[in-house]
Write a structure and sequence with these properties.
Number of domains: 1
Enzyme class: hydrolase
CATH superfamily: Alpha/Beta hydrolase fold, catalytic domain
GO molecular function, one term: pectin acetylesterase activity
Largest sheet: 10 strands, mixed
EC number: 3.1.1.-
Keywords: Cell wall, Cell wall biogenesis/degradation, Hydrolase, Secreted, Signal
Number of helices: 13
Mean pLDDT: 91
Number of strands: 14
CATH architecture: 3-Layer(aba) Sandwich
Structural class: alpha/beta
Radius of gyration: 20 Å
CATH topology: Rossmann fold
Distance between the termini: 23 Å
Main location: secreted
Oligomer: single chain
Length: about 425
């Protein structure tokens, strides 16, 4: 039965992924496909009978102008902690790409990443959100919250387009969610961790110090970014696909005013949407969890259809085992770029790192990669234990994997 379930998940992921690839030809990133892929990351056959948690809409948000792209109320899923975790809080910011134009944002507002009308009424809590000690040893009994993502700018925009009936209010959604959770007991937290995956991983970096400032200095506060280290990298045609795309996001959604002044004072706001220019300014302890060959970035930033119109990279993008020597050399250069970016960051004793050499994207909410019998390892330590050791100061974690193909513990994503 378990093998059949695994096969079914792989088939569904493959079908979704093929649609996801095709979608990049529309405005570079028609990100409505990516969220469907990401939704599968949160469900793994390694987790039996996952906890289902209902959606809570933030009733006071509209009065603050904190609304989704379509003007609907934002929301979150909240499972209350107990015992030793009763006053500990884990906030997970949902990912799901971005929108950079009126057209793509208008499309997005008809999905669960642009409107609470389309959000699931309940979602499974797995991985770092699991309530089972055998699946989530350090955070299982914490107050665990998944904040839904319905703005398209990593919870950082503050603008609107009345003609298109679009609200770009990510920053206000962030504050409304935090205010609501503070009223529900987070104000009394003695431990707190802000996390996020993909676009939510970028958001956890952008809002890390703001999160720290919510609490008294006596509260232990740290941040975790999973698959959020998006690089300003040169694509296979020599262009800057992701920089051009982020430029549209920042400009359209009014992100500039909410970016750290320490960065925008000397760099273009678009560059300050890239984590590589932000992490040096983060004062709060931060853990960066990323694969060295981030599949989303390979697909969308390095070798999108716009940069590879003849499809030379198609087979490589779908299955890393089909990459040619020169393609692997290009991808090793991307890994080297990532290591250069985090070099200074890694020297701080308060920060943590786990950079494994896998072809994947997001590893904290997926049970098989977060904590399972065959989870990915660097040395002899998996992701959940590495994050826990870092958060609780049990050990310094600066784990950087050897280059592909040396790691045999990876859960590579391969599509046919």
């Amino acid at each position: 039965m378990r093998n059949l379930m695994s096969l079914w998940v792989l088939i569904v992921v493959g079908l979704v992924f093929s649609k996801w690839v095709d979608g990049f030809e529309y405005d570079y990133f028609n990100t409505t496909e990516l969220p469907f892929l990401e939704s599968l990351y949160g469900v793994s056959t390694a987790s039996s009978n996952p906890l289902l948690v209902g959606l809570t809409l933030i009733q006071g948000a509209a009065a603050q102008g904190a609304v989704c792209l379509d003007g609907s109320l934002p929301g979150y899923h909240f499972h209350r902690g107990y015992g030793s975790g009763a006053n500990s809080w884990l906030i997970q910011l949902e990912g799901g790409g971005w929108c950079n134009s009126i057209t793509s944002c208008a499309y997005r507002k008809k999905t669960r990443h642009g409107s609470s009308f389309y959000m699931e009424k309940e979602i499974p809590f797995t991985g770092i959100l699991s309530n089972k000690v055998e699946e989530n040893p350090d955070f299982f009994n914490w107050n665990r919250v998944k904040v839904r993502y319905c703005d398209g700018a990593s919870f950082a925009g503050d603008s609107e387009d009345k003609a298109a009936q679009l609200e770009f209010r990510g920053q206000r959604i962030w504050w409304a969610a935090m205010e609501d959770l503070m009223s529900k007991g987070m104000h009394y937290a003695n431990q707190a961790l802000l996390s996020g995956c993909s676009a939510g991983g970028l958001a956890s970096i952008l809002h890390c110090d703001e999160f720290r400032d919510l609490f008294p200095r006596s509260t232990k506060v740290k941040c975790l970014s999973d698959a959020g280290l998006f690089l300003d990298a040169v694509d296979v045609a020599g262009g800057r696909t992701l920089r051009n795309f982020f430029g549209g996001v920042v400009s359209l959604q009014g992100v500039q005013r909410n970016l750290p002044h320490a960065c925008t004072s000397h760099l273009d706001p678009t560059l300050c949407f890239f984590p590589q220019h932000l992490i040096a300014h983060i004062k709060t302890p931060l853990f960066i969890l990323n694969v060295a060959y981030d599949l989303w970035q390979v697909q969308a930033s390095l070798a999108p259809s716009s940069a590879d119109p003849r499809g030379y990279w198609y087979e490589c993008k779908m299955n890393h085992a089909r990459c040619s020597d020169w393609q692997l050399k290009f991808l090793q250069g991307f890994r080297n770029h990532m290591l250069n970016v985090i070099n200074r960051f890694s020297t701080s004793n308060q920060n943590g790192l786990f950079i494994n050499s896998c072809f994947a994207h997001c590893q904290t909410e997926r049970q098989d990669t977060w904590f399972a019998d065959d989870s990915p390892l660097i040395g002899n330590k998996g992701i959940a234990l590495a994050v826990g050791d870092w958060y609780f100061d049990r050990a310094r974690i600066k784990a950087i994997d050897c280059p592909y193909p040396c790691d045999k513990t990876c859960h590579h994503l391969v599509f046919k």
